[in-house]
Amino acid sequence: MNCRHCNTPLKLVFVDLNNCPLSNDMLTQSQLDQPETYYPLKVYMCHSCFLVQVDEMKKAELIFNNEYTYFSSFSKSWLAHAKRYVDMMTVRFNLGESSQVIEIASNDGYLLQYFKEYNIPVLGVDPTANTASIAISKGIPTIIDFFGSELANKFKYQGIKADLILGNNVLAHTPNIDDFVQGVKIAMKENGVATFEFPHLYQLIEENQFDTIYHEHFSYLSFITVYNIFKSQDLEIFDVEELPTHGGSLRVFAKHTADTTKSISPNVQKLFDKEIKAGMCTLQYYSGFQSKVDKIKYDFWKFLIMAKKHNKTVVGYGAAAKGNTLINYCGLKGDDLIKFVCDASPFKQNRLLPGSHIPVKHPDEIKQLKPDYVIIFPWNLKTEISEQLSYIKEWNGKFVTFIPEMEIFTAKKTEIRSSIKQKFYSIRNVVAAQIALIQSDGLSANL
Ligand SMILES: [Zn+2]
Questions:
Q1: CA 10 – ligand 1 centroid, Å
Q2: In b/e form, how buried is each residue of 115-141, taking b as 16+ CB within 10 angstroms?
Q3: Do 408 and 420 touch, CB atoms closer than 8 A?
Q4: pTM for the structure as a whole
Q5: What distance in angstroms lies between residue 416's CA and the mean position of ligand 1's atoms?
Q6: How many other CB atoms are found less than 10 A from the CB of residue 190?
Q7: What is the average per-residue pLDDT within 403-416?
Q8: Helix, strand or coil for residue 6?
């Protein structure tokens, strides 16, 4: 495999998550009678341009198909994030009824709907017909296709050019990232702006977010690599924001290099300095990640075995890609240790998780079963989810997250538990801290 940006042959493995099925391929009962395809999930880093990447094991066309079950509008906090962005951009770049906004990976129209409310003309692009059809039903024109230079040229011949072109969580999902950015260049007006949000590789490494690695996610991006990829297509990043979304994302603002109407924000140099200081342009920075990932695997098993031994019931919440990466890397199969995983999306309910075959149920099933522990797989939404499920305290139920490290908490006791952890970290005895947390939940450490 060669680097998808600079074409250097890749030699260095960043982390190897072994073989697993596609994280978003939810199964039906009848599919259990058929063989399931597993793909290697080995992540490489380019020693020349530092782009961290996985090979395109399954063609993007086969991943983002009609069975794609991720609908952005199911997360209230994501909708609020989209609304704040629309308000900020409308004011900052003076967008109005004569402007054109294009969103790449517009999903079910979760974001463009807010521009539409301001009568700003919008156009969505998304290859997944089932999400796009929902957007179209909301009156948001959507092209069902992949974005790249080819589609951008079609827009050009139709006279469509964007004052604002944006994409959230798509840059990392595109196998031919250079052609994608070239498309942005073609589709953007002379004085236009492009913004992209993507999870920051810095956070992935610092916070052990290995469960954000999955086959649909082809590249893992630092600011420096993204800056250079844009530069190679004659685009310049003139501002950048650090966001809390998805465990820590970046929002970059790009313009044509020749556009002199926008000044370069000091944020650009600040983030360069932060990444260089952290060592992101050295090979050493990327070593040692595998052992951090393995430690989470051992904690996951330790928790599940102790819970089983003490007749505690465990369920999960959030049948998303993150949970599948964690479960499949740990090698868990069947529903004896995690009874089921709940999800608010009706498109996932009554299906089974790929690989582990844990059933997916409606969140109300938690009220029926009254489990002792609810593992929150999308740890980035743990505040939102623990508030929604705060009723589990009625039967003394507790929440568990595994990233950046194992934590057991109740809504009320979070602060106390953090202080316990802090005390143990001060003597650098992380294992003792975890055992203490489990003991405080009534589980003996007597394995
Ligand atoms: Zn490279």
A1: 8
A2: bbeeebbbbbbbbbebbbebbeeeebe
A3: no
A4: 0.87
A5: 45
A6: 10
A7: 76
A8: coil
Phi, psi (5° rounding) for residue 9?
-60, 135
Query: Between 177-187 and 223-232, two packed helices, what is the crossing angle to 10 degrees?
Result: 60
Does 404 sit behind a cis peptide bond, omega within 30 degrees of 0 on the bond before it? yes
**75 CA to centre of ligand 1 in angstroms:** 35
Helix or strand (DSSP H, E) at 200:
none
Question: Any alpha helices (H) in 220-279, and if so which ranges?
Answer: 223-232, 266-278
Locate all alpha helices (DSSP H) within 64-215, ordered by sequence. 76-92, 112-117, 129-137, 149-157, 177-187, 201-206
Q: How far is the CA of 329 from the centre of ligand 1 (A)?
A: 27
Q: Residue for token digits 């924000």? A: 265
**pLDDT at site 435:** 45
Listing DSSP states for 312-324 in one string gives --EEEE--SHHHH
Q: Which amino acid is at 389?
A: L
Cis-peptide, bond into residue 354, ω within 30° of zero? no
- Greater confidence, 222 or 76? 222
* Secondary structure of residue 130 in the 3-state scheme: helix
Residue 126 · residue 135 · CB < 8 Å:
yes
Cα 94 to ligand 1 centre (Å): 37
Contacts of 368 (CB under 8 A, 6+ apart): none
- Cα(230) to centroid of ligand 1, in Å? 14
Contacts of 246 (CB under 8 A, 6+ apart): 169, 199, 212, 380
Which amino acid is it at 310? H
Quote the ligand 1 centre to 47 CA distance (angstroms).
Answer: 7
Give residue for tokens 């589980």.
443
Q: Which residues pair with 123 in a beta bridge?
A: 102
Q: What pLDDT score was predicted for residue 429?
A: 41
**Per-residue pLDDT tens digits for 369-409:** 999 999 999 998 898 899 999 999 999 999 999 999 999 99
Q: Could you give the CA distance from residue 32 to residue 28 in angstroms, rounded to a whole number?
A: 7
- How many A from CA of 7 to the centre of ligand 1? 6
Can you give the pLDDT at residue 419?
Answer: 42
Give 314's pLDDT tier (boundaries 50, 70, 90).
Answer: very high
Angle at 367 between CA 363 and CA 370, to 5 degrees: 115
If one counts every other C-beta atom within 10 angstroms of the C-beta of residue 164, the result is: 23
C-alpha 220 to ligand 1 mean position (Å): 12
Structure token digits, residue 356: 């582990």
